[in-house]
Amino acid sequence: MIDIDSYEKPRPGCTMRIFYMYEQDICTIIDIDFGEEKIYIQNKTDDMLHRAFGVVEEPDWEDFEYFLLDRCFPPTRGRMKEELARWGLTSYDPLQIVEKANGRTAEDDLWMQFRYYPRTGE
To answer: How far apart are CA 16 and CA 115, in angstroms?
Structure first.
């Protein structure tokens, strides 16, 4: 098993890191700067189907938002309030939903691990 805590910390401004995994292998490391709405990725596989953003090497914030939506249940799901309550949520927030589900979907064996960092550097 890979020790994800052994990776160096993300660049200043990034307060979240997502390890996008296939089984126990890291496929993409995603560093997120919420203040600047920027993401930085490191692909760790040549398999485009296992990369978080496929062939896109420099995804933007819109790509990140779409990625999150793709990894959680749709906002049009029936009985939405009950589903959100089951997850302990009060509103539809793709990031929170993905965090609660560890990025797992019924369609594949990909999943995510999250790490949080204090805001540093300005």
So the answer is: 6
Whole-number pLDDT of residue 121: 56
- With beta carbons less than 8 A apart as the criterion, state whether 53 and 40 touch: no
- 118: closest CA among 4, 3, 6, 16? 16
Does this model's pTM top 0.85?
yes
Residue position matching structure tokens 């979240």:
16
Which residues, at least 6 apart from 51, have a Cβ–Cβ distance to it below 8 Å?
Answer: 20, 27, 28, 43, 45
Task: For residue 111, give the nearest of 121, 119, 99, 122 by alpha carbon.
Answer: 99
For the chain, domain boundaries: 13-116
Which residues fall within 8 angstroms of residue 60, CB to CB, at 6 or more apart? Answer: 38, 39
In the prediction, which pLDDT does 72 show? 92
